Amino acid sequence: MSDFEAGARSRITVDEIAIHLGVLENGVPPGVALRFYKFLTDLSKQTLRLHRCRPHPTKQTLTLSCDLPFRFRGAGDNHIVFVGEITDESQQSIEVASKESAARKSICIFFCLTQDAESHLETQRHLLNSRCIVVGVVGTRQVFLSPEPRAALRDAILERVSRRSLIPFVTSEPAEGGCFFGRETEVEKLTSGDQDYALCGAGGIGKSSLLRQMRWSLRSRRDDRFSRLVEVDMLGMSDLNAAARFIAVRITPTREAHDVSLNSLEPFLRRVRSGDARFREGPIDLVLDEMDTVLSIDRRSTTVQPDSDSRCRPHGDHSQKIQIDQTRPGTRYPLMQVLRHCRIQGLIRLTVSGRQETNTILEDTENPFSVDPKGPGGTVSRLRQLRVEPLTTPEAESMLIKPLEDLKYLDRNEQRGLFRDALQRLAKCKGIPFHIAELGLNLIDELTPRLHSTG
């Protein structure tokens, strides 16, 4: 057993952390490893990012990028920062970690290895974002030397942050990061390759959350697509020209964008693609959410001959007559026609999301993205359908129960009656993530008084 593991010394140095994380020049950990070595390396998935300003990490900072193994809001793409001596370089690393965690809405943990580091971070706490957690020297030793470092790390977080701020259940906005659960296959499809997708599924099934998690995943992976991603919520749009203008403004809020019509959307995107530095290395990654109303109107609308009035002309059934240059008069789906032309030219890649209307569009042979109406599986579309299904029973149970256990609201071994009741209520949610999140919030409200009475 090393002196450090036995706690014989009163001071922990960054060198010792670096040795046990295997980031010295030879890259080989010593034979004597700390109990938390495997825990931290598993946490980091074997990919350690060392932030330092000198050739060796002596007495400065060591930053480990990882995913915290807890179902907390803010878990995922986290920084664990070991802080030794305070220098200009270490202060810069602290500021960078705080800014990055704020941008990602992720938890950042500062482990103080010296008393100077602890005092400095406490005086600087007002400059750190609210998701930064400072663990002093004593707390750091408790986590490092614990026989159960995972539980010790969780307790260190819960002691320093309000439980309410860590609750991952959310119904007021799409979930992402630590608030998002499951659907790894769907996220992988959306973030890999060049395929365009149309998400279909019932309300509350998690389509918008899946799109938000796609964005979160691209940012977490430092994927170039993230800088080109443009998300547009089309809910409530009932005019195709207004929809085109809204898309343009979301891409770049310029005066020109505010004057865009459906007829001028394609040349506008061409100018943006060639002139905006964000899109010089790749197409505009256009994500159109809540497309049902827009697609329904687009399906019933047609193009007309060019005339002096290029504005759309609404009809009683909400269909519209739209002038689109270089498009045969009488063509249906004027908006989708424009998007298809833009996709062919490499101006955009496209992801759309909606309920039943999206599926109806894909099955329509006049859909501009249609390829072969006589394909073996029916109409084939270049917009590949990605149907978002309810969670399976094990997935739903994990989504509900694991956060309750991680936050110590529920213990399935000691509170078996409460656990069975939660599962019975979960069955009524039928795997719909929105309903599961609502149930999670209700259970927390019910369990909070019990937690306080036993705490």
Description:
This protein is α/β, with parallel strands linked by helices and 455 residues long. The chain has three domains: 3-166; 183-387, P-loop containing nucleotide triphosphate hydrolases (Rossmann fold); 393-454, no CATH class. It has 20 helices and 14 strands. The chain has helices spanning 3-6, 14-20, 36-43, 88-104, 115-123, 137-145, 149-160, 163-166, 184-191, 207-220, 225-228, 240-251, 255-258, 262-275, 292-300, 334-344, 356-363, 393-406, 416-427, 433-454, and strands spanning 61-66, 78-83, 108-112, 132-135, 196-200, 229-233, 284-289, 302-304, 313-314, 320-323, 348-354, 370-375, 378-381, 383-387. A five-stranded parallel beta sheet has the order 6-7-11-5-14, sandwiched between helices. Strands 1-2-3-4 form a four-stranded mixed beta sheet, with helices on both faces. It has a three-stranded mixed beta sheet with strand order 8-10-9. Helix 18 crosses helix 19 and helix 18 (393-406) runs parallel beside helix 20 (433-454). The longest helix is centred in the last third of the chain and has 22 residues, at 433-454. It is globular, with a radius of gyration of 27 Å. The model is unreliable at 1-12, 20-35, 45-58 and 308-317 (pLDDT under 50).
